[in-house]
Amino acid sequence: GEDVEQSLFLSVREGDSSVINCTYTDSSSTYLYWYKQEPGAGLQLLTYIFSNMDMKQDQRLTVLLNKKDKHLSLRIADTQTGDSAIYFCAESIPASKIIFGSGTRLSIRP
Amino acid sequence: EAQVTQNPRYLITVTGKKLTVTCSQNMNHEYMSWYRQDPGLGLRQIYYSMNVEVTDKGDVPEGYKVSRKEKRNFPLILESPSPNQTSLYFCASSLRQGAPYEQYFGPGTRLTVT
After folding, report:
1. Does A1 touch chain B (CB under 8 A)?
2. Residue A108 and residue A12 in contact, taking contact as beta carbons nearer than 8 Å
3. CB-CB: which of B58, B102, B107 is closest to A42?
């Protein structure tokens, strides 16, 4: 069945790059998403990538997609304290529900 | 402002006392959904609705009910809450189900059942 897996925790030093990884099982997924959940708030869409793309860059964010290995990653350059949050990987196909991973809690140390 | 609202934000109740968590969106979205978030389990879908009067079970529907009488509202009903329903609940909406439509989330309702 469909499944999306992520590690639960990541700690990085302020100013370093953060790389959050995700694996998924549904090879028919057409869109892969990264959502961000800040403390006490709901999820917000951070970025997404269409399955025919390998990479997408948006300012400090870089999304890499390896379709062969069903691996998705989110790189945050120059990580700041405001990046502390839970990051959810998700996959979806048209007219079907979105499947979320368990979330990776990113903490920033000085 | 485009948003999804939920009420209440926090609720402490006792086992067996019926409660309703309201959800409303002002974006004319067809698709609405309820999730619960538990540590280490991520988001699990409880119920969803493709449009008015169309609802269906998600992955963890036991102990919950929903209704969709109007497009903007999608209340979650716990007829007889139990302690294992203590969780953080999110309502979400999107224009339609699935890709490529972004889901918009409410701020969450933290429910404690004693």
Report:
1. no
2. yes
3. B107
What pLDDT score does A2 carry?
63
- Say which of B97, B106, B108 has its CB closest to residue A95: B97
The Cβ of residue A36 has, within 10 Å, a number of other Cβ atoms equal to 19
Q: For residue range B28-45, what is the model confidence (pLDDT) as tens digits? A: 999 999 999 998 888 999
B48 touches chain A (CB under 8 A): yes
* Tokens encoding A39: 């403390």
Inter-chain CB proximity B90 and A43 less than 8 Å: yes
Query: A102 and B97 in contact by Cβ < 8 A?
Result: no
Q: How many residues does this entry show for chain A? A: 110
Residue A46: what residue type? L
Nearest CA in chain A to B91: A42
pLDDT above 70 coverage of chain B, percent: 100
CB contact under 8 A, A31 and B100: yes
If chain B, 114 residues long, is cut into consecutive pieces of 10 residues, what is the mean pLDDT of each piece?
94 97 97 93 93 94 97 98 97 90 94 98
Integer Rg of chain A from CA: 13
Residues 6 or more apart whose CB falls under 8 angstroms from that of B38 comprise: B44, B87, B88
Q: How far apart are CA B61 and CA B49, in angstroms?
A: 13
